[in-house]
Amino acid sequence: MEHLYYLVAQLPAFTATGESTAKLPITTEYFKDLCDRFMNEKNREVVRNLSLEPPREAVPTGSVFLDEWYAKERNLRFALAQVRAQRMKKESKDVPITTDGEVIQAARTATGMDSPLSAEQFLNEYRMTVLDKIAPLDMFSVDAVYNYGLRLMLAERMRKFNRDEGLASYHKIYEEILGEKK
Fold first, then answer.
1. Is-above-0.85 flag for pTM?
2. HEC sequence for 135-164
3. Residue 45: which H helix or E strand, with range?
4. 3-class DSSP state for residue 50?
5. pLDDT tens digit string along 129-162?
6. Which residues, in sequence order, are CB contacts of 97 under 8 Å at separation 6+?
7. How do residues 60-100 score in pLDDT, each as one tens digit?
8. Residue 37 CA: distances (Å) to CA of 2, 143, 167, 179
9. Which residue, of 36, 95, 130, 153, has the fewest CB within 10 Å?
């Protein structure tokens, strides 16, 4: 038997912006543990398999919300691949064509940014906006729990980015490439 009211009541609010450096009040691991205690086996399995990276081919999850999220994220990733290939003047024949204008515009904006960190922050905000648009109206539904989990995973991912560490990694990789060419 599911107890979604008890589960949702225990989920703390948090800010999911890339600018925030505040510690999240809950981890994905703890979130999944809570779900294990309050959800039925079928929905627990869906929570265990939540991912920010959708499968390349659409696979039904049993949730209209998750299927829509994965479709939108898949289209964004395909659009990013298409735009990057165009900028490099390469063919993107293995990448399915994305026709959603909003997604293509987001991909163009992100790939046009000077800083990879800025692009990632922009894409995170775009993804949060997508989640807001498709969020279920019933805050005590299983889809609301899935939405919370995805938002939490996005917030955790963005908090891992660090400008100084990113620059150091970039310079290390750049030097390795130059060192190999000498």
1. no
2. CCCCCCCHHHHHHHHHHHHHHHHHHCCCHH
3. helix 41-48
4. coil
5. 999 999 999 999 999 999 999 999 999 998 887 6
6. 78, 82
7. 999 999 999 999 999 999 999 888 888 877 776 666 777 77
8. 9, 17, 42, 53
9. 36
